[in-house]
Structures are given as structure tokens and as C-alpha cells.
Amino acid sequence: MFFRFFKRLFDIFSASLLLLIISPLFILLIILVKFNIGSPVFFTQERTGMHQKRFKLIKFRTMTNEKDENGNLLPDENRQTKFGGLLRSSSLDELPELFCIIKGDMSVIGPRPLPPIYDAYYTKEELKRFEVRGGLIPPDSIDSSAVISWDKQFEYEANYAKNLSFKNDLNIFLNVFRIIFQRNKTDYGDFIREPLNKERERRV
């Protein structure tokens, strides 16, 4: 219980301090996204957070809004821009999530917040991931792979929620720079993972 209180204080302090420090970079990214991708600069999407409560997650846009002749958005891989891929591979697209951390919807470290459309596809064990706030830095950062399967991701997240501790948070935090380096080496910015619902329906 004490660690949860300490973790929340750390979230507020660290996210606020980082926003202050990177404010020039943040403004520059707003300009670059506007110039390279267009408006709106930010991408917002409903996500499922702690105790399966929904919230609005905010990121820098990495895709265009190009549509087909019927007015439907083109597949993600067709709308991903080169600049957007750079933002993703460097994780700079996630900087606006600092506002979600300050607000209390997210934590610095925690399971990846995912869309509500996935809510029906978790196993009983995987639902443990919702016992903590979703995070900017995921527990699977300690994995040696830059690209990870859904099953492995949820295994890390469920174990993280069951074993919440300062030691685990520190270990994950120290790995954040390694995973960014790994993402760049493997062209993570161009990687589009199959949606969880489609992946699990295909396996049935």
C-alpha cells in the first residue's frame, strides 16, 4: 500500500518535471507533426485503464487520415508516414502521455494501455494487468526482443501487477534506453502488430 502511494507521488513529480524540461522539444514536435503529417497534431483514443475504467490516451500523430473511395480509413500500414515511423521508433510519439500520468489515468511504469475492443479477449490471468495503472514504460521492457508477442506481453504485465515493488520498477526503468535502442535497430517504427482480437479469433 505504501509503495502504491509513493509510486503515485513519483508519477506526478517526474512527469511534471520532465514536461518542464522538454517543453522546447515538445513545441518543436508539434510544429514538425503539423508540417509533416497535418492537423490535428495529437491522436486521442479511448483506452482501458486500472480496474477496467476507460480514459482518453493522447499521443503525437504518426499516421495520415487517408481514406479509400468509400470514405473508410486505409489500413495502418498504408497511412504510416516516414516521419511517423521515426516518432514511433524513438518513442517520441508517446511524450503527450505525460499529461495522462499527471491526471492519474496512467503511471510512468505499468502495462500498456490498450483499446476497449480488446477487453473481451483477455484470459482470467491476463486480467490481473488491470490491478495497476497502465504505463508509459511497459514491464516487457526487460525482454531482450524489440518486438514481442501478445501472450508474452500479457505474461509480463500480469506478473508485474502481482509483484508490484520498487525493485521491479527500478529494473524496468533502467531498461528503457535499451529498448529504445533495440526498436531503432529493428525498424520498430515501421512495425504494425496484428490486432489482438484478430490474432485470438484466428487461433480459435
UniProtKB/TrEMBL annotation:
Identify the residues that the record assigns to the Bacterial sugar transferase domain, covering every copy. 7-181
GO MF annotations for this entry?
phosphotransferase activity, for other substituted phosphate groups
Sorted alphabetically, the keyword list is: Membrane, Transferase, Transmembrane, Transmembrane helix
The residue ranges crossing the membrane are 12-33
Pfam families in the cross-refs: Bac_transf
Per its UniProt record, what InterPro entries does this chain match? Bact_transf
Family in the record: Belongs to the bacterial sugar transferase family.
In Swiss-Prot or TrEMBL terms, this protein is called Sugar transferase
